[in-house]
Amino acid sequence: MSKVIITCAITGSAHVPTMSRYLPITPDEIVEHAIEAAEAGAAILHLHARDPQDGRPTPDPKVFSQFVPRIAQATNAVINITTGGSMGMSLEERLAYALQIKPELCSLNMGSMNFSLHPLAKKITDFRFSWEKPYLEAFEDKVFKNTFKDIKHIMLKLGEECGTRFEFECYDISHLYNLAFFLNEGLIKPPFFIQSIYGVLGGMGPDPENLSLMRTTADRLFGRENYRFSVLGAGRHQMPLAAMSAVMGGNVRVGLEDSVFLGKGELAVSNADQVRKVRRILSELSLEVATPDEARTMLALKGRDAVNL
């Protein structure tokens, strides 16, 4: 079994600040969390931006530029920029910063979906900012849009023209077949980094059987030698599914984007808390953690020197 790549998703765009006072919002907070996560063992840092004033998601390259270069200067971790942004952002907005810096790695959602957190709007009674409740409620009647045309555009503009490779986010088994379609079209080539995602409303449930099905389907479609499998378990499913992925020869993703908790009823104070916890799990399984440069080799990335920072 090869070494395990730990990805840490620092802040995301789905969770609202009221869910955790530890969720990083400002550039300084994102920098601090990212550096600590890298020092704890994260080889890849998955990054979104938020308005420093109230924490709402933003695609503004000016905000990204306040923290991404600082993270890159302080760590050797692979910088992974979202192309998903958040609900309601146009494709042009979602790609703006990635096209500016041409990163080694970008996330790429492999289909349109009913991604939703709207039930949380009823569970939270006292919101920190006025935008949060309407934002969560709006998920009920919105679709995250990534059509075949959108995906092709991203693959051409970022992949072919910029040399960026992708964290292919697969929320459903159909997303693996979408990925296979683009392989057959000649738009992408292995090794693929498949981030399989469980426990988000609108996507696959967190059942272990789903993880097994995704793994065996990916094996059949691509051949195990042609891809790196990784697992993101949302919320309380984060660590159990990470452990299952590791046992099955896969990689893991943690971070406050995916869960604000460290354990039952216990908020994670930092992203590094989750990285350290999953690293302990891997150690108990006698598995080694990949360094950033080892992850670059495993994923055939172009290297930090080719990034426009």
UniProtKB/TrEMBL annotation:
List the protein's name: 3-keto-5-aminohexanoate cleavage protein
Cofactors required: Zn(2+)
Spell out the InterPro entries in the cross-references: Aldolase_TIM (IPR013785), BKACE (IPR008567)
Keyword terms: Metal-binding, Transferase, Zinc
Name the lineage: Bacteria, Pseudomonadati, Pseudomonadota, Gammaproteobacteria, Pseudomonadales
